[in-house]
Specification:
This protein has five helices and eight strands; from the N terminus they run αββαββααββαββ. By secondary structure, the protein is an alpha+beta fold.
Length: 240
């Protein structure tokens, strides 16, 4: 179960691009490390590493995992918890999907650098009003009216270049199918978009748990949907 306090920041969080020269204090860095330690994976069997490291312009949280859809999704799920948690702490955060991790941060065997989250003292607001989100309308994210209130937090999730590659369809027996629209430039953006899916699924799980919906996930292939890759099925069960 995720930290329920992460739900409310979904509706106000904002990517921060302007930072003050003020360094993070030892207490703030310790708090970041605590949040890293508390992050809960979506897929516990997937290997990953989250590490706080210093870059030229400040601090970043670097994410390493296998370069597979499940592993990248799991990493995005973990790192979005940190995005929301550090928002609560008043820090600025910004996702980076290109570049590389510092050479002094060694990835475990079989893992590679995927994404990082810049963190620091913001010199611009870290919040915005709900109407200030530039996102697709809910009808382009979810196919069923009955799911749209539940999955509104997913619509607000951040993504690389604001592409929002996710799509959710209603299935039989209270199932939700999760799909991803593949990028046109697959070699460059494919991994980033799988991480984006994990970010969206973090918001989905927070919403399900907020509404006390019990659920389980599976990876049984659903019916094909033209233009999309199937990722997983969410089976909603009785109320907790």
């Amino acid at each position: 179960m995720l930290n329920p306090s992460l739900y409310e920041p979904i509706f106000t969080r904002k990517s921060v691009r302007e930072y003050a020269d003020t360094p993070l204090s030892p207490a703030q860095l310790d708090a970041v490390r605590e949040e890293i330690a508390k992050a809960v994976p979506l897929l516990p069997e997937e290997k990953y590493k989250l590490e706080l490291g210093e870059a030229r312009e400040g601090w970043r949280i670097y994410g390493f995992c296998e370069n597979t859809p499940k592993s990248n999704v799991n990493l995005g799920f973990l790192m979005q918890q940190l995005d929301l948690a550090l928002h609560i702490q008043g820090l600025g955060r910004l996702w980076f999907g290109f570049g590389r991790a510092p050479s002094k941060l060694k990835a475990p065997a079989g893992l590679s650098y995927a994404m990082c989250l810049r963190i620091g003292v913001a010199s611009e607001p870290i919040e915005r009003a709900p109407g200030e989100f530039m996102r697709k309308p809910i009808t382009e994210v979810v196919d069923e009216d009955a799911l749209r209130e539940l999955l509104e937090p997913v619509r607000l999730a951040p993504s690389a270049r604001n592409v929002q590659p996710w799509y959710f369809t209603a299935g039989t027996a209270d199932k939700i199918f999760v799909w991803r629209k593949p990028p046109k430039i697959k070699l460059i953006l494919d991994r980033m978009h799988w991480v984006d899916m994990g970010i969206a699924l973090c918001h989905m799980v927070l919403s399900l748990e907020r509404k006390q919906v019990n659920f389980e996930i599976s990876f049984d292939e659903a019916k094909r949907l033209e233009g999309y890759d199937y990722f997983m099925t969410v089976k909603r069960r009785a109320q907790l």
